[in-house]
Amino acid sequence: MNTSLRHIFVAHLAAWSMLFIVSGCTFHKSVINDEVRHMDTSFIRPNETTAHDIVMRLGPPPPPPDNLQREKVFTEDFLRYSCIETKTTRFEIGYILILPFAWSDTQAIDEILVEFNPDRTVRNVVRTQRETRWAPLASEESRAPAKTQRTPKGGTR
Amino acid sequence: MKARIVFMVCLGMIAGASGCLTSSNGQANLLQTAAPLKTENEMLSALGTPKSCTLLENGDRLYTYFSNTGKGMGFKAKYSGIPIVEVQNSQRATDGIAIIVNPHGRIVSQNVLSDQTRSLSYQLSPF
Questions:
Q1: How distant is the alpha carbon of residue A24 from its chain centre?
Q2: Which of B115, B24, B44, B7 shows the shortest CA–CA distance to A139?
Q3: Helices within chain A (DSSP H only)
Q4: How large is the average pLDDT for residues B105-123?
Q5: Tens digit of pLDDT for each residue in B27-41?
Q6: Smallest CA–CA separation between B27 and chain A, in Å?
Q7: Is A157's pLDDT higher than 50?
Q8: Cβ atoms within 10 Å, residue A59
Q9: Is residue B10 part of a domain?
Q10: Were both Cys, which of A68, A78, A154, B9 would link to B53 (CB 3.0–4.6 Å)?
Q11: Which runs of E-coded beta strand occur in A56-96?
Q12: How far apart are CA B106 and CA B87, in angstroms?
């Protein structure tokens, strides 16, 4: 076999090998309760706005996903709205014997907690926005810090 | 065939050493960021939105935070798309923090709660 034919053969072999490896790689992203990200909470006035006002304006808090069912979204003391994002990277190699590599990160990317006074008026509104990461391509250290806003600033006493 | 088996065994060892199935859920780095806190403002800045808030009888408020991480390894075998065997060994850790804040916004108690769950599952088809 001459050199040029060998090069063509090696190039084909490399291309097919890459195709074989890449075909076992999948990236999956899901977002639950996406509407929470667009919620405007600027109408909420501490010690004035009531739980009824909030539910009439924003609607009841959406239920959490199945694996987070134990997390409450409303009680007498709070209402919680959260948007959950999951990013999963999978790499499955092998045809008969398969070794599945999977990395998954789930975060509440937008979370709003409205806390009530005993008279059912709003005490505090806390909103946190976070990022999910594509593990293992992005490390834990590369995750941007969460941003938290509180109304009123400095809190009530 | 021999080379493929050796390759798979090597890959299995790498997977076993690194944990080939990992998941995280909830607030990242919860325990690392939860150094002793003094005020409610500090708590919200460091930990973000709490998972729950409960007004206690004496006027204090109890806030909770949770985070889950899972790690495991496993393998499965298929022949012509039909699953033959699937084995998975996993370990899940749940970390939580319970913080009590008094009506003046001062933290009076901060406790870390942790538990671990191990599970081994296997499926042998078609049985």
A1: 24
A2: B24
A3: 3-22, 51-58
A4: 85
A5: 656 666 657 889 999
A6: 7
A7: no
A8: 11
A9: no
A10: A78
A11: 78-93
A12: 49
Give the number of other CB atoms < 10 A from CB of residue B116. Answer: 9
With contacts defined as CB-CB under 8 Å, which chain B residues touch A94?
Answer: 8
What pLDDT digit, counting tens, does each position of A52-92 carry? Answer: 999 999 999 988 777 666 678 889 999 999 999 999 988 77
Q: Are residues A111 and B74, on separate chains, in Cβ contact within 8 Å?
A: no
Would you say residue B6 has pLDDT above 50?
yes
Which residue in this structure is represented by tokens 């014997």? A97
**Residues near A113 by Cβ (< 8 Å), separated by ≥ 6?**
A78, A79, A80, A124, A125, A126, A127, B49, B50, B53
Q: Looking at chain A, which residue has its C-alpha nearest residue B44?
A: A148
Looking at the complex, does the CB of residue A101 fall below 8 Å from at least one CB of chain B?
Answer: yes
Which pair of structure tokens corresponds to residue B71?
Answer: 């790690």
Which residue range(s) make up the domain with B120?
A: 21-124
pTM (2 d.p.) = 0.77
Distance CA B41, CA B105 (A): 8
Q: What is the pLDDT of residues A81-127, one digit of tens each?
A: 999 999 998 877 666 666 677 888 888 899 999 999 999 999 999 99
Count chain A–chain B contacts defined by CB atoms under 8 A.
Answer: 108
| Per-residue tokens: B75 | 């393998």
- The ipTM estimated for the assembled molecules is 0.77
List, in sequence order, the alpha helices (H) in B21-104: 30-33, 40-47
Residue B4, in any domain of the structure:
no
Q: What is the DSSP letter of A23?
A: T
Alpha helices in chain B (DSSP H): 2-18, 30-33, 40-47
Radius of gyration of chain B (CA): 22
Q: Measure A137 CA to nearest chain B CA, in Å.
A: 13
d(CA A135, CA A84): 17
Q: How many domains does chain B have?
A: 1
